[in-house]
Amino acid sequence: MTDIANQNILLGVTGGIAAYKSVELARLLLKAGAAVRVVMTEAATRFVSPLTFQAITGEPVRTGLFDE
After folding, report:
1. 11: which residues sit within 8 A by CB, 6+ positions away?
2. How far apart, in whole angstroms, are the C-alpha atoms of residue 30 and residue 4?
3. Where is the Flavoprotein domain (predicted)?
4. Quick one: CA torsion of 10, 64, 41, 22, rounded to 10 degrees?
């Protein structure tokens, strides 16, 4: 994997059965030293809870256009 330490990554998660794999991707990116933020479609939240990503990244997860 390319050196991504100190890089900012925006991970977009959409609805699909493979959405659960993005949890592992986020974990690996963090382990490599990247800062990860997650945005999810409403459909994605049916496969993986936004709280899962929030717990892993320590950042709030955006799930809608007008999230506060």
Report:
1. 22, 25, 26, 29, 36, 37, 38, 39, 53
2. 9
3. 8-55
4. 30
pLDDT tens per residue, range 10-35: 999 999 999 999 999 999 999 999 99
What residues pair up with 8 in beta bridges, in sequence order? Answer: 35
What single letter denotes the amino acid at residue 42?
E
Confidence (pLDDT) at 2:
66
With a cut of 70, say whether residue 60 has pLDDT above it. yes
Judge whether 13 and 43 are in contact, CB under 8 Å: no
Q: Is residue 46 packed enough to be buried (19+ CB in 10 Å), middle (13-18) or exposed (0-12)?
A: exposed
pLDDT at 64: 86
Q: What is the pTM of this model?
A: 0.88
